[in-house]
Amino acid sequence: NLKAHLFTHTDEKPYKCSLCNYACSRKGDLKKHLFTHTGEKPYKCPQCTYASTRRGNLKEHLFTHTDEKPYKCSLCNYACSRKADLKKHLFTHTGEMPYSCSVCSYSCIRSQALKIHMLTHTGEKPYKCWLCNYGCSSKADLKRHLLTHTGEKPYKCLLCDYACITNADIKKHLSTHTGEKPHSCYVCSYSCNRIQALKIH
């Protein structure tokens, strides 16, 4: 309404949370915020177990069931089901890296990537393997590590029977078929398909 809108011009935030220091200009926003304290998620998906504190989030989630991708990039053919994902994608065109490390020069386009990076400074390894004493800073690294226990090798070569655990390893292997040598010495004409071989050289 008009009264709530006028607060956006004055920066006044008359609606205050009684449980924390959150304040806002709209009564509806305070109501949504209170769900973060109660844990209540009133907006539920009729097709799966997904639930949210916001109607807008549920609306975007429903696109995952229909494969509809209403958010389209005006610079390429990228399309997605979430407005936030389109916003992140646009950084790939602008080169902007909005999230920066306060300790080193690292920057990235996703807040989650920055959180994972910060663990390299603290040494914290919150993701632990329940089969051995391995620990790491990201869920993706733990997932890759677990393959060493199961013996599963999801990346398979289409030209031979080689299989491996990581996408990086399959890329290195493919260069043995193509003859590509992407790593070059800046002193002489030597080149190779593995960075480790270049370091030894």
TrEMBL record:
Q: Where in the cell is it found?
A: Nucleus
Mind giving the lineage of the organism this protein is from?
Eukaryota, Metazoa, Ecdysozoa, Arthropoda, Hexapoda
Instruction: Tell me the protein's name.
Output: C2H2-type domain-containing protein
A Gene Ontology molecular function term of the record: zinc ion binding
Q: Which GO terms describe its biological process?
A: regulation of transcription by RNA polymerase II
Q: Does the keyword DNA-binding apply?
A: yes
Q: Which family does it belong to?
A: Belongs to the hunchback C2H2-type zinc-finger protein family.
The chain positions of domain C2H2-type read: 15-42, 43-70, 71-98, 99-126, 127-154, 155-182
Task: Report the Gene3D superfamilies cross-referenced here.
Answer: Classic Zinc Finger (3.30.160.60)
| Major localization class | nucleus
Q: Which domain of life is it from?
A: Eukaryota
Keyword Transcription, does the record have it? yes
- Show the GO cellular component annotation of the record: nucleus
Pfam families, per database record: zf-C2H2 (PF00096)
Q: Which UniProt keywords apply?
A: DNA-binding, Metal-binding, Nucleus, Repeat, Transcription, Transcription regulation, Zinc, Zinc-finger
